[in-house]
Amino acid sequence: MKISDTRIPDVKIVEPRVFEDDRGYFFEAFRESVFRDSGIEEHFVQDNVSRSYKNTIRGLHYQIQNPQAKLVQCLRGTILDVAVDLRQNSPSFGNYVAVKISDVSKRMLFVPKGFAHGFSVLSDEAIVSYKCSDYYNQDGERGVRWDDPQIRVNWDVERPILSDKDRKLPLLSSINEKDLF
Fold first, then answer.
1. Which residue among 68, 95, 146, 164 is least enclosed by CB atoms within 10 Å?
2. How confident is the model at residue 115 (pLDDT cuts 50, 70, 90)?
3. What value does the mean pLDDT of the chain take?
4. Separation of alpha carbons 82 and 155, rounded Å
5. Average pLDDT over residues 30-48
6. Banded model confidence at residue 50, pLDDT cuts 50, 70, 90
7. C-alpha distances in angstroms, 27 versus 15, 32, 33, 79?
8. What's the mean pLDDT in 19-33?
9. d(CA 63, CA 66)
């Protein structure tokens, strides 16, 4: 397994070693010791799976209480996975990393605590699985609007499909400091 930095070094691209033959393929998607050797010491406690259709945008979500690191994998289709730095004292505050991940590439994205996370669906449909380092906490749930002009994510979709909740998320500039990291 290869784990490499992105332009925000705490966000990592994970590329598993894939073994293919005429039966199909096999790869190890997670091994705690490999992650620990790469400086990632998160303990994952919850797995989530979502199915979405082309042009869907989910996010940008985070939890201020019970913050979660995430290991994101696309089991079917292709997504643009996005992590936005919300750590107030970080030199990359308000910047983001966007990485295409798919069932073909088998790449994964590690999103540390202190980041908002979201993705857009580039294929007809996508099934996304992600490990979380803490449990979902509805009271601590927060978000940043997907089209925030300060962040300027290019989601690479036409006519985005969004939930009502995601449409109503605040702009980064209007989020109270206590609701950031």
1. 164
2. very high
3. 97
4. 9
5. 94
6. very high
7. 10, 15, 16, 20
8. 93
9. 6
Reported as a pLDDT band with limits 50, 70 and 90, residue 123 is: very high
- Spatial contact of 144 and 50, defined as CB atoms under 8 Å apart: no
The CATH architecture of the domain made up of 2-172 is Sandwich (2.60)
Q: In what order do the strands lie in the sheet with 78-85?
A: 96-102, 78-85, 115-121, 57-63, 141-143
pTM, full prediction? 0.95
Return the amino acid letter for 20: E
Q: Which residues are catalytic?
A: 61, 130
Domain segments of the chain as ranges? 2-172
CA distances (Å), origin 89, targets 45, 58, 85, 114: 28, 26, 10, 11
What is the rounded CA–CA span in Å between residue 65 and residue 174? 19
Distances, alpha carbon 73 to alpha carbons 14, 35, 50, 78, 124, in Å: 9, 15, 11, 10, 17
Is there a contact between 97 and 8 (Cβ–Cβ < 8 Å)?
A: yes
